[in-house]
Specification:
heterodimer, A: mainly beta, seven-stranded mixed β-sheet, B: 110 residues, mainly beta, 9 strands, 0% helix
Chain lengths: 114, 110
């Protein structure tokens, strides 16, 4: 089945540690996105990539980093510089070149920093 | 992207139609209206989108007013599994960002 996988579903880290969240898609989509969601809030865009080896900052990129070495993978690193990293992180992808903004989302990773 | 306004919550009886309103009075001519929903603790799911004509698919119908300043998402026969937060988003042109507000929590009651 085609889709987006994010692992792990739950992640716990100590304060001050960097942590990398995985996002893989087998939809052959060109564009990939990372969002953050806090309780009771909508999603906020962290980073996005429209093509391999290229990515742009979203609305809340500070304290995060990404890479896009392969079309199917877009890992997100939450660094120790992120002041409030505990949140629900969602990855999405879209077929670039289309007129429409239909994004497909993964199941999310819930990160808790202790 | 144009901002949207949605009621924070709505209730609907199982089997009845759920009509979710959205205001987007500053929408521009090349912007589409998108609807997504998010079931608790899951990733959002695309439902439908439209530009100016009404649209229907297997999940829902989208009614856009003639002046495009508001729209309504219709779930014709709501089920308990339709309980979710529904997001109305305006996006278009070369900007492929989706800006999610707080959405409407639809609760379908038995």
């Amino acid at each position: 089945d085609g889709g987006i996988t994010q692992s792990p579903k739950y992640l716990f880290r100590k304060e001050g540690q960097n942590v990398t969240l995985s996002c893989e898609q087998n939809l052959n989509h060109d564009a990939m996105y990372w969002y953050r969601q806090d309780p009771g809030q909508g999603l906020r865009l962290i980073y996005y990539s429209q093509i391999v080896n290229d990515f742009q900052k979203g609305d809340i990129a500070e304290g995060y980093s990404v890479s896009r070495e392969k079309k199917e993978s877009f890992p997100l690193t939450v660094t120790s510089a992120q002041k409030n990293p505990t949140a629900f992180y969602l990855c999405a992808s879209r077929l670039a070149g289309g007129r429409y903004n239909e994004q497909f989302f993964g199941p999310g990773t819930r990160l808790t920093v202790l | 992207d144009a901002k949207t306004t949605q009621p924070p919550s709505m209730d609907c009886a199982e089997g009845r139609a759920a009509n979710l309103p959205c205001n987007h009075s500053t929408i521009s001519g090349n912007e589409y209206v998108y609807w997504y929903r998010q079931i608790h603790s899951q990733g959002p799911q695309y439902i439908i989108h439209g530009l100016k004509n009404n649209e229907t698919n297997e999940m829902a119908s989208l009614i856009i007013t003639e002046d495009r300043k508001s729209s309504t998402l219709i779930l014709p026969h709501a089920t308990l599994r339709d309980t979710a937060v529904y997001y109305c988003i305006v996006s278009g042109g070369s900007n492929y960002k989706l800006t999610f507000g707080k959405g409407t929590l639809l609760t379908v009651n038995p």
